[in-house]
Amino acid sequence: MAEKKDYKVVGTRPIRHDGVDKVTGRALYGADFYAVGLLHGRVLRSPHAHARIKSIDTSRAEAHPGVRAVVTAKDFPDVEDKIADLGEGAANVKDLQDNVLAGDKVLYKGHQVAAVAAIDPHTAEEALELIDVEYEVLPPVISVLDAMKEDAPLLHENMRTDEMGEKSENPSNIASHFQHKQGDLEKGFAEADVVVEREYTTETVHQGYIEPHNATALYNPDGHLTIWCSTQGAFAVREQVAEILELPVSKIKVVPMEIGGGFGGKINVYIKPIAAMLSMKTGKPVKVLMSRADVFEGTGPTPGSYVRVKMGATNDGHITAAEAYLAFEAGAYAGSPVGAAAFCVFSPYKVENGQVDGYDVVVNKPKTAAYRAPGATNAAFAAETVIDEICEKIGMDPLEFRILNSAKEGDIRVDGPPAPRVGFVETVEAAKDHPHYSAPLEGENRGRGVASGYWPNFGMKSSVVINVTADGTISLVEGSTDIGGTRAAIAMQAAEVLGIPAESVTPTVADTDSVGYTAVTGGSRTAFATGYAAYEAAQDVKQQMIERAAKLWEVDTDAVQFADGVFSTVNGKEEEIDFKGLAARLDETGGPVVGRGTADPNQPGPSIGVHVVDVEVDPETGKIDILRYTATQDAGKAVHPSYVEGQIQGGAVQGIGWALNEEYIYNEKGEMTNASFLDYRIPTCLDLPMIDAVIVEVPNPGHPYGVRGVGETPIIAPPAAIANAVYRAVGVRMKELPMSPGRVLKTLGKI
Amino acid sequence: MRAFEYVPAKTVAEATSLLAEKGDQAKPLAGGTDLIVMVRENRRQLERMVDIKDLPETNVLSYSPDTGLDLGAAVPCHKIYADDAISAAYPGLIDAAKIIGGTAIQGRASVGGNLCNASPAADTIPPLIVLGAICVIAGADGSTREVPVEEFCTAPGQTVLERGELLVSFKVPAPPQNSSSFYLRFIPRNEMDIAVVGAGASVVLDDAKTSIVSARISLAAVAPTPLLAEEAGASLAGKEISDDAINAAAEAAQAIARPISDMRGTAEQRTHLVGVLTRRALNGAIQRVKEA
Ligand SMILES: Cc1cc2nc3c(=O)[nH]c(=O)nc-3n(C[C@H](O)[C@H](O)[C@H](O)COP(=O)(O)OP(=O)(O)OC[C@H]3O[C@@H](n4cnc5c(N)ncnc54)[C@H](O)[C@@H]3O)c2cc1C
């Protein structure tokens, strides 16, 4: 479908529709929600990383005069031990329940154990101290390699390893092991002139969204439950709560409030079912808010991992074989993004002989959740630094190496499917041609590094309804919560079809009763798939408007043309009416026009990014300063370039944070010791240069405007690019993330 | 957070008696950038907060080149660094006042509160120590006593203050001829962090500015309380300025560090950083004398 074309609206930079609300502070977030009779819920969390719950006595809390209800896992309906398809991926319902309120065992510090609803937040907090929980403390296991050992403490006594379909005999913390294989690995390595094999570890990191989780629930006696909350997907909340509480989805309405960031971390539910249970018990609306410490300790971060990559290449720079061993921490329950990591580890490259092994391993940490290109950053840190070493050994420019080895459309990937069209070479060339890459880098302890990152992107389902208004504008109802400017990007795609300005669209993010099914804002799918649905809905409007024009002029619909926002006909006399003019005449031609569009597109089109970074290392303190940063990325077609740049910059910054300082720091008891933004160190604006975002546009054939998702890819390359730059600055290869000052000093042999 | 009583004191005597009445259950409130945070996060429970930030005595800010600086315990950082004469006389203290939190925090945060909070990592304590600052303390019985800053903190969060006592002000001696001071800390980011290690230095040079007459060095975040590295400073007295002399002082400072490993850094890293930062603090102070 899509070729490189000029558009009227797509590709421009209008002011976003939600902009004024947000910059004036009037936008309503979940914590702003208020209802008459509101009660406040708070959650009691496990102080232990691993313990058996011997008893929970809630009687003292229940006796408190300000307390209206207490809930524990006993209040759950008995759900089957089954895998439910939740639209966004399957999950074991028992695990979901158990993560929301612990049953027999607590599996991480911060695990939710009980909750109270009280007349005010302080009373609720106080009442938590009146809940008596007796624990039998068990030894915790915190890192993936420890958890894989045979004598490791077991989180789930009955869990068996799924070994490519077969269940292991003995229980294990390894939930599953899979393998992708292609070609002849041995032969490939034998053909290599250089082989580099390295081991890497990365620590647990959090998305660090600024807004903590929140939920207010109201259960009516007629069986209807309403939840107002911050989420990346109202329908995903509906499905999860329905499974956990065994309610029909039709009885649950989820109202998404504005969202202060999610990055993948606001898909899973934690306090939403609890707010619902507390409301069921009290008959009152109940609001539950998390603190920052709750967010760090109780919600899904992205996994720590152990990755080993081996790669062989010829002296003239051709990859002959590549092998990866990926062991990922799933957190307390099975389900790490190791599958996606396996998918991405070698994806940019043509690898004829390859093998990838993935292990999904449970540890006593919060159940991991998605985080921007989940799994890919861990994998790329390894693969992209191994490539850098190969380039150094054979004396080849690392960008040339990437062009030489780039996978072409149709090349078969190690994990099976053929590579789709993506502008890898174009993106590498954009980096090469950028003045940054050829700028001299003077001064001691400075170095420049490059790396690339690949993410497949997702399609999935979306629905959009468009109502034509008599003043020539349209209202666009969608189900995608707006995180990165998606209201604008979606509205613009409808505006393009109808030949109206972006400002003539009023986009609304609706609740689950008011719009058709829409999957999460995640997987870099929203501008792509909900944009696609908006395009379809606008096409429907266009067709209906053509019919109205035909009626007005008493001609056949075939005789009506539509171009640049103007309907016309040449049948007999020349008639012309623009969209606005026709919108004013709907009443006389048959009443309201409502267009609808749904999409489930299966060609999301991957996105690939190439990052160039200059660093300076203080060899006495081990601190890395980012001097200059350029990120190029294939966006297919940037609908609103400012928000594409914003995504590239934001992703790069999160990748820089992951590279430099972000990590969950654990003590020997398995307790996170840095559950605050003071000691969990995301970069501040003083730690960053302006990120130069360069958009490359190789249209995605799977979308009418060529759109590719852009949100996730930019987080992938930074750690590897920075590690490669550090090597050129001070001559050491960093193999652990984060490259915090202490680790750099150690690697430099200073401590 | 539990409900507590808030009382704005009008006189030092009223403040000390309000504090004495409740003992452990009462705390003075200056800028509140430590205290309010702790109370809100349930890290500290109180029955009474005694606001001392509007007392004349805790708000003095007067400097003379002859008698030195009188600094009220509740004066917020921004007022200190807005004063050019004070900034020129005590650059080490200004280094610290300018890095606490950010602009908003510096609008409230006081040096008195920074000291009384008694964090081993507090940024203003090393410069106060190297400048020879003395604490003026009022007691509930109307008495006053003076304690050098280096003796004020006794353990993390603990000080020499007894029931009912209030830190009223600091007396900082006038800087001698050819002297200057410098403070720096190491943090993993460029702002919004607590010192992994902090080091302050003050030096007095000879007229030729080639030799060190005397020096004081103080360290933060490497022991339960901020440290005066007495021997390290003394080792420089009478020495010509040289890398060797500075390295030797840095090693002497390292020798007294007793750091722990925590989420901000490991003990080895901290000991290493003591050497690096002591050198940088000394060189910074010397450079300032030379440039004056
Ligand atoms: C975002 C943020 C960033 C920060 N960054 C830094 C930093 O970079 N470096 C740093 O060192 N600190 C930092 N702090 C901590 C804090 O700002 C400082 O310690 C500040 O100097 C405290 O002063 P205050 O006036 O706010 O004290 P308060 O909070 O009012 O008091 C602190 C303690 O001292 C007691 N107290 C106060 N005045 C007296 C008195 N006159 N007599 C007896 N006891 C008294 C109080 O009871 C309390 O226990 C930060 C705090 C925040 C919130």
Core attributes:
heterodimer, A: 751 residues, alpha+beta, Aldehyde Oxidoreductase, domain 4, Aldehyde Oxidoreductase, domain 3, 4 domains, eight-stranded mixed beta sheet, seven-stranded mixed beta sheet, 31 strands, 26% strand, B: 292 residues, Uridine Diphospho-n-acetylenolpyruvylglucosamine Reductase, domain 2, Uridine Diphospho-n-acetylenolpyruvylglucosamine Reductase, domain 3, Enolase-like, domain 1, 3 domains, five-stranded antiparallel beta sheet, 14 strands, binds flavin-adenine dinucleotide
Architecture overview:
The complex is a heterodimer of chains A (751) and B (292). By secondary structure, chain A is an alpha+beta fold. Chain A has four domains: 19-27 and 459-599, Aldehyde oxidase/xanthine dehydrogenase, molybdopterin binding domain (Aldehyde Oxidoreductase, domain 4), CATH 3.30.365; 33-138 and 209-298, Aldehyde oxidase/xanthine dehydrogenase, a/b hammerhead (Aldehyde Oxidoreductase, domain 3); 141-206 and 300-419, Aldehyde oxidase/xanthine dehydrogenase, molybdopterin binding domain (Aldehyde Oxidoreductase, domain 4, 2-Layer Sandwich); 429-441 and 605-751, Aldehyde Oxidoreductase, domain 4 (2-Layer Sandwich). In chain A, the strands form seven sheets. In chain A, strands 10-9-11-19-18-17-12-31 form an eight-stranded mixed sheet. Chain A has a seven-stranded mixed sheet with strand order 3-7-1-16-13-14-15, sandwiched between helices. The radius of gyration of chain A is 27 Å and the shape is globular. The mean pLDDT of chain A is 96. Chain B is of the alpha+beta class and 292 residues long. Chain B folds into three domains: 5-51, Uridine Diphospho-n-acetylenolpyruvylglucosamine Reductase, domain 2 (2-Layer Sandwich); 61-172, Uridine Diphospho-n-acetylenolpyruvylglucosamine Reductase, domain 3, CATH 3.30.465.10; 179-291, CO dehydrogenase flavoprotein, C-terminal domain (Enolase-like, domain 1, 2-Layer Sandwich). In chain B, the strands form four sheets. Chain B has a five-stranded antiparallel sheet. Chain B has a four-stranded antiparallel sheet with strand order 11-12-13-14. A three-stranded parallel sheet of chain B has the order 1-3-2, covered by helices on one side. In chain B, strand 6 and strand 7 form a beta hairpin. In chain B, helix 10 crosses helix 11. Chain B starts with a strand and ends with a helix. The model of chain B has no long low-confidence stretch (mean pLDDT 97). Chain A binds chain B through residues 122, 125-126, 620-623, 660-661, 665, 673-674, 677-679, 681, 683-684, 686-687, 740-742, 745, 750-751, and chain B through 1-3, 42, 186, 188-194, 196, 262-266, 268-269, 272-273, 276. The structure holds flavin-adenine dinucleotide (FAD). Flavin-adenine dinucleotide binds at residues 27-35, 37, 52, 58, 73, 99-101, 105, 108-110, 112-114, 116-117, 122-123, 161, 166-167 of chain B.
